Amino acid sequence: MSNFFSKENMSKEKPYPPQYYQDYLRLETILDSQKLKSDEYGQHAHDEMLFIIIHQVYELWFKQILFELDSVLDIFSKKEINETHIGTAVSRLSRIIEIQKILIDQIHVLETMTPMDFLDFRDFLIPASGFQSVQFRKIENKLGLKVEDRYTYGDANYCTYLHESDQEKIKASESEKSLFDLMESWLERTPFLNWGETSFWDEYEQAVSNMLHDDRRLIETNEKLSVIEKEKHLTEYAKTEVSFGVVLDKTLHNKMVEDGNWRLSLKATQAALLIQLYRDQPILLNPYRLLTKLADIDELFTTWRYRHALMVSRMIGRKIGTGGSTGSEYLNKTAEKHRIFTDISELTTFLIPRSALPSLPIEVQDNLGFYFHVKENK
After folding, report:
1. Residue 207 parent element (H or E)
2. Of 237, 276, 269, whose CA–CA distance to 250 is shortest?
């Protein structure tokens, strides 16, 4: 047997030319890309270097997020999606999440710049603004933010503030299937909802009814509550009862979608809830992790927007932003409005205790898990 680590093998040259660190990373180009406007105008502002680098790093991370996101979109564009594909998508969404945490942490570095330091070069930036980040707009569109759901200022389309060539790129991303669209279609194809003689929803509705009946009884029999407090609790209880209609009542669900209070189709909503409830079943673990990652991404971008808004408020107060927006007020509004996967987060409303879950028929358990039956010897 030949020795792989023999001198003969070790001395063989690899079929690729040698690389030099600086050349491979194109550091000369990257490190020569910080041109201070304050120096150009003969009014050197020390902190402009930090400002430029921070935003360049943001754009590099946005590029990586788009790279990962495009691969996940490709996975969910396939006609057949198996367990391996879901695992890959979960891994790549996890990477996006870790990048998002870095995006938030970078704000701490930017906050080492004082408001007076920023004012030294702020006027040189007008009308440039992070609002014009083409990559971030593409991320929002690819995730599934709809044009009509965007918060706008001045009643103008968000593309108006971009160069024409950049507008075309953004509009192209609007017309593509988003991750929300593809995820919804994938959920709608989820099997296991039909149990044969009965169905998951018949069993679930009865379990919900029993749970809510017990909750009402606890309120009515609680001697520590005054009559007014009981009435208040029972009013809230009635709202909870009605809220279950989004997963149990097709008419109510469609009305909520029409009013803009829900987005997922009824079939997709029911499938997502089933995944949440039976996530302990082996085959549903990765789908559950996928839904959790989507909710995490939504939450982290909201956190990033809020932190950004706080930082802007600290830097410029109530001044207008360099891009002409209402500064921190605009950022706060986008944090509130630019949520995409809120339906998944709100599914926790409809969870019931494991002890109350309908028992799975044996054939459904076989499909959901990695089971095999041993025939007894006769």
Report:
1. helix 200-220
2. 269
